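Key result, reporting period 2: structure in, sequence out.
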């Protein structure tokens, strides 16, 4: 089942979406994880986005919105510099809470 996740105004079509609540330092925080495809043409824009480290995250279908950071990620070994290639990305984002 696909879902939309919006990160800093960039919309990603994702699969394997999961939302869980993690308790840290006495506060409940959202942790979301999902997979998405990245094409050769999107590669530069997506990696530039992910280097920003701080994100405004929206998941419209879940009515979820928070500020967060990457807590885990991985990518396939696909060479996305080669035209026509598509890579697999997995991203986990943790909500930031002010104390």
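The corresponding designed sequence is given below.
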């Amino acid at each position: 089942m696909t879902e939309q996740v919006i990160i800093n105004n960039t919309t990603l079509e994702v699969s394997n979406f999961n939302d869980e609540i993690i308790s840290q330092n006495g506060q409940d925080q959202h942790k979301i994880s999902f997979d998405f495809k990245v094409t050769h043409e999107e590669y530069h824009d997506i990696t530039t986005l992910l280097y920003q480290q701080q994100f405004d995250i929206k998941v419209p279908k879940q009515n979820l919105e928070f500020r967060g950071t990457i807590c885990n990620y991985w990518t396939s070994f696909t060479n996305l510099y080669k035209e026509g290639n598509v890579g697999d990305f997995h991203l986990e984002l943790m909500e930031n809470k002010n104390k």
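The CA atoms of residues 4 and 13 lie 5 Å apart. The chain has one domain: 3-95. This case is discussed further under Risks and Mitigation.
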